[in-house]
Design brief:
Layout (H helix, E strand, L loop, with lengths): L1 H6 L19 E7 L5 E6 L7 H12 L3 E6 L3 E7 L3 H11 L7 E3 L3
Parallel strand pairs: 1-5
Antiparallel strand pairs: 1-2, 2-4, 3-4
């Protein structure tokens, strides 16, 4: 009987996040240079609680760019968008409430 009480952690859900709908972990927003002026923005680390394909659909309409979800062997599902969309992605994720500003890390030039 005491063994089952030791295995139960009553505060396990408390470490998931302070607010409902806010993910844990860091989201990395990177830009990669392609040919000439062309660039590619990648978003990595968004929680599996969110549907990445629906996020890409909203990003494409909001930022007037093309995008896709790519399966990466090391990082899992990564969102790729055409152009340098780092500021747009940062402000969108913060304003909608998917991530806090401390969880967003912008990389690039």
């Amino acid at each position: 009987m005491t063994m089952s009480l030791l295995l139960l952690d009553p505060f396990a859900d408390a470490s998931k996040g302070d607010e409902e709908g806010v993910q844990e972990g860091i989201v990395h927003i990177r830009v990669q240079q392609r040919n000439g002026r062309k660039s590619l923005t990648t978003v990595q680390g968004i929680s599996d609680d969110f549907d990445k394909r629906k996020l890409v659909k909203v990003f494409k309409k909001e930022f007037a760019c093309n995008g896709t979800v790519v399966e990466h062997p090391e990082y899992g599902e990564v969102i790729q968008l055409q152009g340098d969309q780092r500021r747009n992605i940062y402000s969108f994720l913060k304003n909608i409430g998917i991530c806090k500003s401390e969880q967003l890390k912008v990389h690039g030039f």
